[in-house]
Amino acid sequence: KPGNIDDDGPPVICEQLLRCGIAAAVADALRVAKGDPNPDGEHKANLERLNDATTTCAQRIADAASAAASRGADAAFEAYRREVLSGALGGESGEAPPTNGAEAPYGRFNARFWRVHAPSSMEQDDFALVRVLMRLLDPGSSADPTTLRLACHDLGQFATYHPHGRSVLRQLSAYGSVAQLLAHGDESVRRASLLCTQRIMLSRDAMDKLSMVSRN
After folding, report:
1. Which residue in 34, 94, 141, 148 has a CA-CA distance of 20 to 30 Å to 9?
2. What pLDDT, on a 0 to 100 scale, did the predictor assign at position 96?
3. Using alpha carbons only, what angle is made at residue 106 by residues 139 and 89, rounded to the nearest 5 degrees?
4. What is residue 9's DSSP assignment?
5. Structural domain tally of the chain?
6. How far apart (Å, rounded) are the C-alpha atoms in residues 18 and 33?
7. CA-to-CA distance for 154 and 167, rounded, in angstroms?
8. Nearest CA to 139 among 131, 130, 149, 148?
9. pLDDT per residue over 191-211, tens digit each?
10. Tell me, what is one Gene Ontology molecular-function annotation carried by this entry (predicted)?
11. What's the rounded mean pLDDT across residues 9-16?
């Protein structure tokens, strides 16, 4: 069937052009451009009609793109939520960020993911997912280095991208849970723990300055 701006699928451009009236408006404008006299003498009205139709269509396409992006963001967070609740991290959201400077897919290693979800979705049910991540840091709960490392990573991202993330984590006593892993036998877990403790204790500006110093 014809594409619909409200359908899950992408809108069909020709259908949108017809629906917004652009096709008819363009035909009128072309007739004027070719010197074909408009029997009603409404050249100005035709141009206004074309402008209005173009604006309407552009807005509909922008709305469709925004709705599609929102659905994609919701699906990505739902996959992340299932992973955290499973107690074994590194599945649907990945174990490590991509190398060679490639942008990470929309998920735990993508900053946009945390900018969107840290101040909203992660607050649901009194920070339920944050509390689950903290429980995963208990060596008695998980001995898997990947899960420990990624739990530290995710808590650090929450601290960075939630406007009050550092305060929330301190109130939940997350610092002690993370700091105990500084003596873990796995080097990657120790590094992740150190970075997370820094993110909990230091502001984002301070972390940026620390990163610049370490690079120099």
Report:
1. 94
2. 77
3. 15
4. S
5. 2
6. 21
7. 16
8. 148
9. 999 999 999 998 777 666 656
10. proton-transporting ATPase activity, rotational mechanism
11. 49
What is the per-residue pLDDT across 83-141, written as a single tens digit (0 to 9) for each?
Answer: 999 999 987 666 777 777 677 788 899 999 999 999 999 999 999 999 999 999 987 76
Would you state the structure tokens that stand for residue 192, as one six-digit string? 């992740």
List the domain range (segments joined by +) for residue 136. Answer: 111-215
Q: Are 52 and 136 part of one and the same domain?
A: no
Residues 119, 211 within the same domain = yes
Q: Which helix (H) or strand (E) holds 12?
A: none
Question: Is the alpha carbon torsion for 184, 189, 195, 199 positive or negative?
Answer: negative
What are the b/e assignments for 130-141, b being 16+ CB within 10 Å? bebbbebbeeee
The Cβ of residue 159 has, within 10 Å, a number of other Cβ atoms equal to 30
Q: Please name the residue ranges forming H helices in 3-144.
A: 13-20, 22-33, 43-86, 111-117, 124-136
